[in-house]
Amino acid sequence: MRFLVALGFLIFGLLAATQQSLAATCTISKYNEDDIKTIENDCRDITLDGLNVPAGVTLNLNLNQGTKLTFQGTTTWEFYEWNGPLLNITGEDLEITGASDHVLDAQGNLWWDGQGEHGGTIKPVFFILHGVKNSVMHDLKVKNTPYHAIWIENSDGVSVSNISINNRDGDTMGGHNTDGFNVWTSNNVTLDNINVYNQDDCVAIKSGTNIVVKDAYCYGGHGLSIGSVGGRDYNIVENVLVSNSLIEKSDNGVRIKTVYGATGSVTNVTYANIFLMGIKKYGIVIEGDYNIETGGTTGVATGGVPIKEFTLKDITGTVAKSGVNIYVLVKNASDWHCSEIDVTGGEKTKVCEGIPEGAGISC
Ligand SMILES: *[C@@H]1O[C@H](CO)[C@@H](O)[C@H](O)[C@H]1NC(C)=O
Ligand SMILES: *[C@@H]1O[C@H](CO)[C@@H](O)[C@H](O)[C@H]1NC(C)=O
Ligand SMILES: *[C@@H]1O[C@H](CO)[C@@H](O)[C@H](O)[C@H]1NC(C)=O
Ligand SMILES: *[C@@H]1O[C@H](CO)[C@@H](O)[C@H](O)[C@H]1NC(C)=O
Ligand SMILES: *[C@@H]1O[C@H](CO)[C@@H](O)[C@H](O)[C@H]1NC(C)=O
CATH number, domain at 353? Predict the structure, then answer.
């Protein structure tokens, strides 16, 4: 039985509170801050059914340990110029999922102006998983995010699978900086079977340890990236495996970028079995000259964020004629192992620098 009316739900909540309230299934279909507080406290099986979140409000869900959260129907957020996030979830042992008919429609088209974070409207981050522990998130459909889609931050043990982020409308409607997944300061994160259509990084690992990305399909954005690394509070990337993925019609395929003049480290990163199709700018690009202020590059690498124990294995596919197959500009790198690299089609070349001796890759 479902309680679609807030009042009915509240009465139910109060009655049940004396007994086994935490086992209750609670459904909310209209946004109301008090109802959200009540379900946070009293429910372990929550359905959000077709919520419309008011302008400038974060749908903040600080959930009980062991809660299952299901999105149902179409969830929307009203337009407001601010940094967001529009959705912010925290908790332990959570299961976050969507019913078969659901979509999280952030209506990014209301904000999009082709300028992303560089001007125009102020665009909110869509969804932050903050301080989430030992949790799974699966079968979610996200559409048209104003800016970055999903951040996983300060989390430990997050397994994300079967998620689609569809910002395809942004190609013609001015979507920009619509990153798919960003990972920061987290440990033990797996992204498995993700589909991202967007206009910036498909995945960007800014910092964190023990991270796996597999079975990703990325279309139209900036590829599977590590970085930029450096210039933040925590600047370590360690033990990352990116595998079995397809990157299509994106600016880059495989990318690592570290920040010019910064400190930190990128250690034990492996990209394996990555297929590239029609990459526009760089098939493989490893750069130590990223300018975090301008979002550009300096053309000179610094070695404060050394890339060590780096493996590229079985990276194949095509780059557009006007693109570059492989570009490396790093300093202080060591212990690289590259094999089965076959990236072709790009007719532009750039001079590479800093590839460690015996790495098995050349430009
Ligand atoms: C997100 O949720 C966490 C945990 O409840 C909280 O500390 C943080 O302030 C929230 N962030 C925002 C922007 O609301
Ligand atoms: C990593 O996180 C997953 C998902 O929560 C969990 O099942 C697994 O036990 C964690 N592994 C370690 C080593 O903590
Ligand atoms: C993945 O998502 C699709 C579409 O939402 C769904 O049909 C399918 O059953 C899901 N697969 C798994 C393994 O959960
Ligand atoms: C390197 O990372 C891989 C995951 O890609 C992990 O299995 C392995 O244990 C790590 N190696 C070391 C020395 O930590
Ligand atoms: C190279 O990296 C090491 C850490 O591995 C660091 O101590 C050193 O300062 C770096 N060198 C340069 C030239 O940045």
Answer: 2.160.20.10
